[in-house]
Amino acid sequence: MKLVLASNNVGKLAELQQLFAPLGIALVRQAELGVGEAEEPFFTFVENALAKARHAAAATGLPAIADDAGLCVEAFGGLPGVATAYYATRFGYEKGDANNVRALLEQMAGIDDRRAALVSTLVALRSPEDPEPLIAVGRAAGQITRAPIGENGFGFDPVMWLPQFGKTFAQLPPELKNAHSHRGQAARAMLALMRERWT
């Protein structure tokens, strides 16, 4: 089965391709099919993922899957949440992973409550009008470090400390990260839903 991935994020594509391979699902980035980014005007991950999946399915005629993910920091009332990708721009930096990490560490400099969670919501549709989208959520809770640690991964991986491993996501090998990450959890739940409902 071929699914269009409603994202142009190469890191997401690589992680999801590895996770979906056992089901024989081939993921194709929407950019490879000439599809632009969808609007993401909502305040929740599920609404934005649904909007992205509908956009990609409508533009390609293929079943689509979208991921909306972000960092939810307890001390900030759950923010940046859906605005995670643009977090750095709120503080005068250009959009990008390194600047997001920099801005986060600056904003948390005097904060002792370092609890946070990376959250991923996957939505899959058979068509843009699918009345029963498949929805899977993964959540990886940890603490924000005071400086980046580790070389692997992307996004906030270098500052997301996982107490159960005594390491950040950026210090874990890819197979261990995928087994415990928010996106890995959501992908496994989505695979179970697809097996049950679509195959």
UniProtKB/TrEMBL annotation:
Q: Does the keyword Zinc apply?
A: no
Transmembrane spans? none
Q: Name one GO molecular function term.
A: ITP diphosphatase activity
Q: Which reaction does it catalyse?
A: dITP + H2O = dIMP + diphosphate + H(+); ITP + H2O = IMP + diphosphate + H(+); XTP + H2O = XMP + diphosphate + H(+)
Q: Which domain of life is it from?
A: Bacteria
Q: How many and how are cofactors bound here?
A: Binds 1 Mg(2+) ion per subunit.
InterPro entries to which the protein is assigned, alphabetical: dITP/XTP_pyrophosphatase, ITPase-like_fam, RdgB/HAM1
> Which residues hold substrate?
S7, N8, N9, V10, G11, K12, A69, F154, G155, F156, D157, K177, H182, R183
Keyword flag Magnesium? yes
Q: Where is the active site?
A: D68
Binding residues annotated for Mg(2+), in chain numbering: E39, D68
What Pfam families does the entry give? Answer: Ham1p_like
Under Enzyme Commission nomenclature, its number is 3.6.1.66
For activity, the cofactor(s) needed are: Mg(2+)
- Which keywords label this protein? Hydrolase, Magnesium, Metal-binding, Nucleotide metabolism, Nucleotide-binding
What is known about what this protein does? Pyrophosphatase that catalyzes the hydrolysis of nucleoside triphosphates to their monophosphate derivatives, with a high preference for the non-canonical purine nucleotides XTP (xanthosine triphosphate), dITP (deoxyinosine triphosphate) and ITP. Seems to function as a house-cleaning enzyme that removes non-canonical purine nucleotides from the nucleotide pool, thus preventing their incorporation into DNA/RNA and avoiding chromosomal lesions.
Complex formation: Homodimer.
Q: Which family does it belong to?
A: Belongs to the HAM1 NTPase family.
Q: What name does the UniProt record give this protein?
A: dITP/XTP pyrophosphatase
